[in-house]
Automatic annotation (TrEMBL):
Segments traversing the membrane: none
Span of domain UspA: 2-143
Record family assignment: Belongs to the universal stress protein A family.
Protein name: Universal stress protein
Organism: Mucilaginibacter glaciei
Length: 280
């Protein structure tokens, strides 16, 4: 059975990601795993036995609080509780703990809440940026202000390199939830203009799924995100899908332009990122 992992710190900001993960798990008939990462520091004058007892009390209390926190979310959604796992992970680094668990348990997706648009630290929290940059498991970033909607349409932004392999992953995400797929390529004026109908027919045959093509011309006077933003305004996708090279300098260059707050899709729609270099 497919597994979907969602992280929480039991804050209000994390609720959007949990709601999204619950709905996605329902649609995909997947197992839902809700993860809370913690780290306890041992006072220098405590014995090992005292610290162990303290840890047991902390974990029991946290599990009780987490159970109530998740139950409240289901209640707010007016949904019956899905079968899910609540997992407490001890790790100094939240992202390392999540990645290690997700990889070891073969999770298909990691869901994490972001804090929305604004200055650099508000666009993507450091945990989200690190997950996108390092996780071998695809990451779905859910804006904390996102209002849960049915996933009906996904927009896949492609640079047309290795697009057949990438499209297979996009379709694998879209097919179980019966979402339409639109493949967007932002091209330069010197690039070869492909035949839209022929390309769509070819992709349908190879992917065994209906794929719509949109080709937008690149305006070199704009940031790339401005072109993506304009395409999103037209497409109105439920989810934006990107394949990224896991390089922090590239990631910052693409997602942290000085005027990033001007792009309307920040803080509005979920974004699914795959590692472009992942071979599987």
């Amino acid at each position: 059975m497919e597994k979907i992992l969602v992280t929480t710190d039991q804050s209000g900001n994390s609720k959007a990601a949990i709601r999204f993960a619950i709905k996605l798990s329902q649609q995909r008939k997947a197992e839902l795993i809700i993860v809370y990462v913690y780290h306890l520091l041992k006072p220098f004058n405590w014995t090992d036995n005292a610290f162990e007892k303290h840890g047991d009390i902390f974990r029991e209390k946290t599990m009780t609080e987490l159970t109530s926190f998740i139950a409240d979310i289901y209640h707010e959604m007016h949904e019956p509780e899905l079968r899910h796992q609540l997992v407490l992970i001890s790790n100094m680094d939240m992202v390392d703990g999540v990645m290690e668990y997700a990889t070891r348990h073969a999770c298909s997706y990691i869901c994490i809440a972001t804090r929305g648009a604004g200055i650099l630290t508000k666009i993507f929290g450091t945990h989200t940026a690190k997950l996108i940059n390092q996780s071998p498991v695809p990451v779905i970033c859910i804006p904390s202000a996102y209002h849960l909607k049915e996933i009906k349409h996904v927009l896949y932004a492609s640079d047309m390199t290795d697009y057949e392999r990438e499209l297979a992953k996009v379709v694998a995400f879209a097919r179980p939830i019966h979402a339409s797929v639109e493949m967007m390529h932002i091209s330069y004026s010197f690039e070869f203009a492909f035949d839209k109908k022929l390309m769509e027919a070819t992709l349908k045959k190879k992917a065994d799924y209906e794929v719509t093509i949109v080709n937008r011309k690149r305006d070199i006077t704009n940031d790339l995100l401005e072109d993506i933003d304009e395409a999103i305004k037209v497409s109105k996708p439920s989810v934006l899908i990107l394949f990224t090279h896991q390089s922090r300098s590239m990631f910052e260059k693409l997602f942290y332009p000085s005027n990033a707050e001007d792009y309307s899709f920040y803080g509005k729609i979920p974004m699914l990122t795959f590692n472009k270099n992942e071979s599987n």
